[in-house]
Design brief:
The protein is of the alpha/beta class. It has helices at 80-91, 115-128, 153-166, 183-192, 231-244, 258-267, 277-280, 284-298; strands spanning 8-10, 13-15, 19-21, 43-45, 62-65, 68-71, 105-110, 132-136, 172-175, 197-200, 204-206, 209-210, 215-216, 223-226, 249-252, 271-274. Strand 15 (249-252), helix 6 (258-267) and strand 16 form a beta-alpha-beta unit. The longest helix is centred in the C-terminal third of the chain and has 15 residues, at 284-298.
């Protein structure tokens, strides 16, 4: 690897490199750990957690598209308590000799239907010692008639305030939905509510229909679109949000090459998550990390962090 400093800072959390694996695409790391050491990664955003176990949505809940996938998995997960007891020790490498333990930062992703649920999970995870908490605000607020927290500034601010109040010293990163009229308005709201960082973008709502059966391909009719098709949207939104707020950003959406990471960092991201690309290539995070290092070296950069915010608009 070229002699480039790959370490980056995300809201005070030091990542050994800027490549993180996105929540929902890496599970809890067990399957991918058979391919390479999890210590190679800058960070792991674990599969989304809820307060209680969830079985998720009925199948079919995954469908391919020409440039990505649609998913309506429905947050299937074992619940926050099972994660802390069974998965977090593995992610920490606690069963390995000291020299082989992972130094990768662990980011817990949480979803809730009430502010109280978010608060309880933040307390549990902070006490368990995760490095950061990613708050998914694309979830429906049952007290607001099913409106997603991420679609209204006041709802986004409410859940952010609650998360911060219960997370102790653990940084809170709020994951923004692109399915809004003005993502910068939501970003400013959560910044004002005390968020330490932002991650964006979440999936874009989409739909596929089987022309022969005339039924939607997914049992839930619609799903979240991810993959290369959403990269230009992610780059644009990261750029806009980086100008609207002063919070560090974890960029994501359609990353499959080192140039994709560089684009998101130039747009304003401090670090970048790889998601859907993992399904086709388990080694994608390591490959894009090395490709990014080559790009930084060719540009004569001493540190990859010099890319962040480096775009020169016309």
């Amino acid at each position: 690897m070229p002699d480039v400093n790959m370490q980056v800072d995300l809201a005070g959390v030091k990542l050994k490199n800027p490549v993180v694996v996105a929540s929902g695409t890496f599970g809890f790391g067990r399957e991918y750990s058979k391919f390479y050491s999890l210590g190679e990664l800058g960070g792991i955003c674990a599969k989304g957690l809820t307060l209680h176990p969830r079985t998720g949505n009925p199948a079919p809940r995954i469908a391919e598209t020409p440039m990505g996938i649609l998913n309506s998995v429905g947050l299937e997960n074992p619940g926050v308590d099972a994660f802390i007891k069974e998965e977090l020790p593995f992610l920490r490498g606690e069963g390995l000799p000291c020299k082989q333990r992972f130094e990768t930062k662990i980011i817990a992703n949480i979803s809730g239907n009430t502010p109280e649920e978010y608060g309880i999970m933040c307390e549990k995870l902070a006490e368990a010692g995760v490095d950061m908490i990613e708050v998914n605000i694309s979830c429906p607020n049952v007290k607001a008639g099913g409106l997603a927290y991420g679609t209204r500034p006041e709802l986004a601010a409410e859940v952010t305030e609650t998360a911060k109040k219960h997370a102790g010293d653990v940084p809170v990163m709020v994951k923004l939905s692109p399915n809004v009229t003005d993502i910068c308005e939501i970003a400013r709201a959560v910044e004002g509510a005390g968020a330490d960082a932002l991650s964006l973008i979440n999936t874009i709502r989409g739909m596929r229909i089987d022309v022969n059966t005339r039924r939607p391909v997914l049992k839930m009719n619609t799903g979240g679109l991810s993959g290369p098709a959403v990269l230009p949207v992610a780059v644009r939104m990261v750029w806009e949000v980086s100008q609207a707020v002063k919070l560090p950003i974890l960029g994501m959406g359609g990353v499959s090459k080192g140039t994709d990471v560089a684009q998101l960092m130039l747009a304003g991201a401090c670090a970048v998550a790889v998601g859907t690309a993992l399904f086709a290539d388990p080694f994608a995070p390591l490959r894009v990390r090395d490709e990014l290092a080559d790009i930084a070296a060719r540009q004569g950069l001493a540190s990859v962090s010099e890319l962040t915010g480096g775009v020169t608009p016309w």
